[in-house]
Amino acid sequence: MKSFLLIVLLGISSISAAQNLLDLSGNWELALDSTDVGEKEGWYLKSFSDNISLPGTTDLARKGSSNRLVPKLEKPQLLRLTRKNAYVGVAWYKREINIPKSMAGQPLEFSFERVLWQSRLWIDGEEVAGAQESLIAPHRFVMPKGLSAGKHIIALRIDNYCCPLKLKRA
Predict the structure, then answer these.
(1) pLDDT of amino acid 65
(2) C-alpha distance across the termini of the chain, in Å
(3) Residues 76, 78, 79, CA angle at the centre, nearest 5°?
(4) Which of 6, 28, 35, 36 is deepest in the core (most CB within 10 A)?
(5) How far apart are CA 22 and CA 103, in angstroms?
(6) 8 Å CB contact between 104 and 146
C-alpha cells in the first residue's frame, strides 16, 4: 500500500509540474541583424517576415551564407569545421505566448538551452534585466512577479559574435 501511495503522489506531482511549464518550441519569427542595428531600431517591437523552427539552428534552417567549399582533402577544408550555412552576428527571434490563468502573477523563469554566446529577452517591448552569456549552461531569465494571464510577445536577441574573452585575476 505504501508503494502505491508513493506512485500516486509522484504522478500528481508530475501532472502539477507539467501544468506549470510552457513549451516554447515551434515556429518563431526570425530576422538576421548582421549590422547590429536591431536594438537601436526597436526590432523587439517589430514583426519579422522570415521564420524558423526552434529548437534548431540557423544552419539547419538554411539561413545565412551557403558553404561553397567543395569537399576535398586540402587545407581550407581540413583546417576547420564548416557549416552548410554560416551566419555570424545578431539574430532576432520573436513569438506570441499565452500565459494561462493558473500561471498569472506567479514567478516565471524563461530558459533557453544551447544558446551560443549572448542572449537578451524582451517581453511586450520591455527588456528583462540581465544579458546571459554562456556556451555551456542554459540561459535563464527570471521574472519574480510573473506576467498577467493572456497573450504576450517575447523577443530574443541572440549574438553569436558578441563577447571578447577576458581573463581576470582570481
Answers:
(1) 80
(2) 55
(3) 70
(4) 28
(5) 10
(6) yes
